[in-house]
Amino acid sequence: MADIEKTVSILFQGKDTLSGSIKSMEGKLNSFADNAQKVTQPLADIATSILEVNAAMNALLAGGIVLATKKAGEFGDSFAEISTLIDATSQDINKFKGDILDYSNDSVKSLDDINAAVYTAISAGTDYAESLDLTRQAEKLAIASKADLEPTTRLLATTMNAYGVGVDKIQKFSDIFFQTVESGLTTLPELAEHLSMVTGIAANAGVPIETLSAAMATITSKGAPTSQAVTRIKSAIDAIVAPSIMAAKEAKNLRIQFDAEALASKGLEGVLNDVMEATDGNSARLKKLFGTTKAVTGVLDLAGDGGVVFQGILNDMKDATGATDTAYGKMADGFGLANQKLVNNINSTIIKIGDKIIDKYGAVVGALTEAISVIGEGVDSSTFEPIW
């Protein structure tokens, strides 16, 4: 076993106990003293920074420093993308960076997932100061519905934009989407991908999110893919809002009101009920009103059974308040999610340490690399044989 005292003497005190061997690398050892100084001064600076975080971290080894710096660098790069979307002072941006880390400590989603969700929320027009509020509710909905965080955030943000409401209404939209997934055969990622094709026209036509979501759940529950359900609903609403000449004539013959006014006053379910009663569900007459097979198929999906399923799900939508929180409460304490929270707390602490030392890290790495290289060459040339 190597004698530590002798080793230290050789490396840092320059004692001439190995003069015969050292002569072969005299130039390298002369430079090593300078390398040692390069290492010790930055390390002394780092020690001061580490003390500000936690006195126990004074013993942080080189590997820990590398890990902390790596994590801090990765988080910094990810946050830099978010910061490009924010018009604020550097002080406010730095505070927001810290807010994200603090949020992660209570989250059961990874930091990468959180950053992606925050980026999406802000990209969709959410004020950065409210983006974590949106992300927090999106996380509950994602956990409750077993979905990923980013598409869930995107679904909430884009739909609320279409309906012109702010983050203060997010609980309502979250509960409605949870009920949509529960009642229909669709998923949050599928809704995130396709629903925006119809939310704009639905909102402008005065179709509430509860009604739109109930229609989605009804049609998908009967086997239609999410994308087709969106197309059918959109086609039906289009036909009502802007009826063709043939549709207007047919509506007059049937003695029903078939236009945007009827949709606003009676609701989608009311208009469809009038249509089904007047036509007896006859496909040919429905085609004259709605114009396309897609629209007619959607109408029959929603009202062909007398609207029983559609109305039942619509009632569920109205009673969905608190559904997200209830389901989230049942899921959040699972092993995998609890473990992710622990990982987040560890990573958050490591990143905060890394942020303290990252500016000095370059100098340390350079000096350590040179010093270790010299030692390695000495070992290869048997310089240290006398102390083994």
Describe the protein's architecture and organization.
The chain is mostly helical. It contains 20 helices and no strands. Helix 7 (128-144) packs across helix 8 and helix 7 (128-144) packs across helix 19. The protein is elongated and about 105 Å long. Residues 99-291 form the Phage tail tape measure protein domain. This is Phage tail tape measure protein domain-containing protein. Keywords: Viral release from host cell. InterPro entries: Phage_tape_meas.
Keyword list:
mainly alpha, 388 residues, single chain
Overall pLDDT level: 84
Strand residue percentage: under 5%
Helix content: over 70%
Rounded to an integer in angstroms, the radius of gyration calculated over CA atoms is: 33 Å
Number of helices: 20
Number of strands: 0
- Secondary-structure class: mainly alpha
Major sheet summary line: none
Distance between the termini: 6 Å
Return residue spans where pLDDT drops below 50 for at least 5 consecutive residues: 10-19, 52-60
Shape: elongated
Order of helices and strands: HHHHHHHHHHHHHHHHHHHH
